[in-house]
Design brief:
By secondary structure, the chain is an alpha+beta fold. It folds into four domains: 65 residues, Orthogonal Bundle (Arc Repressor Mutant, subunit A), CATH 1.10.10; 48 residues; 87 residues; 82 residues, Alpha-Beta Plaits (2-Layer Sandwich). It is 48% helix and 22% strand. The protein has 15 helices and eleven strands. The N and C termini lie far apart (71 Å).
Length: 332
């Protein structure tokens, strides 16, 4: 038998709850006792909680809570894991290679019927994300490891403003995937405050001997969203906006980060939002233009701003039609 078969056989025997010596296992499987030791070491390295007791009544056993747990996943759980691995890999998950090996192990021990089922479902789901390069994946691994171990890193970051990429010490509290990009959140020694950084803008990264403790209860995801969501410049003023439309159209609208956070009530063909005045006067009118006449809006303020925005756009393109030379210069 192969080493994998021997390991699986030993695992099944120990799951019975009996304490067995290496000699008993070797005799049962008709293998050398040294092979048993190697298999036991590999099982322990894989996370199996094997206990070795010495003495006349000693031997190997497994923690009871492990023997009570299911060894294999059912077919729906296997399908969910396959799909989760596809989503993770396509999003640039930093341990995609390890995840692929784990999925290979699961499929290796599937029977023919299960294998056909898994293969058919592995091609039924596709994900379109920007591909990540090897350097980005390496940086994600380093940041995740540093966050888990509480280790400070030294980072050079491109702010996109043409300034010098000064090395800065950074305590990564976590990494976050949001809308096609990876971010890292933590304490920046250069700015002496909590900061968010796009991982694809990191130009160099190395571990240091410095250590840190992440604040208790800190959420990298919450901090990132709080930083990225628009903030009012003065006292916040909100407008209740009721939008009607087909259910599918409203579903798409509610998936947008701004409207999703502002949703207060939802019916099949109607949604109510609490939107901040500053956003209603700037971003929201232009965003809703993409929906053309598919929406019915109940808010005089928002309707007025959309009329103004459309009038400015109309005047802009009418001017371009009236002056073709200027249009050609703009295109150049």
């Amino acid at each position: 038998m192969t080493k994998s078969d021997n390991m699986l056989s030993i695992l099944w025997m120990l799951r019975s709850g009996k304490r067995m010596t290496a000699k008993q296992l070797a005799e049962e499987l008709e293998i050398h006792v040294r092979t048993v030791y190697r298999c036991i070491d590999s099982l322990c390295a894989s996370g199996v909680p094997i206990i070795a007791d010495s003495g006349p009544n000693g031997g190997y056993s497994i923690l009871s809570r492990f023997t009570d747990s299911p060894l294999f996943f059912d077919i729906k759980e296997q399908k969910a894991l396959i799909h989760a691995s596809i989503l993770a890999k396509e999003s640039g998950y930093p341990y995609s290679d390890d995840l692929t090996r784990a999925m290979d192990k699961m499929m290796r021990y599937a029977n023919e019927k299960q294998l056909d089922h898994l293969k058919s479902h592995s091609t039924a789901l596709s994900v379109i994300y920007p591909r990540t390069d090897g350097v980005l994946q390496l940086y994600l691994q380093m940041l995740e490891e540093a966050a888990g171990q509480g280790r400070t890193v030294e980072m050079q970051y491109d702010t996109g403003k043409g300034n010098n990429r000064l090395p800065r010490l950074f305590d990564p509290y976590g990494i976050v995937y949001w809308k096609g990009n990876w971010y890292t959140v933590g304490y920046c020694g250069y700015r002496e405050e909590l900061r968010n950084f796009r991982v694809d803008r990191i130009r160099s990264l190395r571990e240091t001997e410095g250590r840190f403790e992440r604040p208790a209860g800190f959420s990298a995801k919450d901090h990132l969203l709080d930083h990225l969501l628009p903030k009012p410049t003065g006292p916040a003023q909100f407008e209740t906006v009721r939008i009607k439309g087909k259910e599918q159209v409203l579903n798409e609208l509610c998936q947008h980060w701004l409207f999703g956070h502002a949703l207060v009530e939802r019916m099949p063909e109607e949604a109510v939002f609490q939107l901040e005045h500053t956003m209603l006067q700037t971003y929201v009118p232009y965003f809703l233009m993409a929906y053309s006449t598919a929406l019915q809006i109940e808010s005089e303020l928002l309707i007025g701003k959309m009329v103004e925005a459309n009038a400015r756009m109309l005047a802009h393109y009418e001017a371009m039609l009236a002056n073709p030379t200027r249009r050609e210069e703009d295109e150049r």
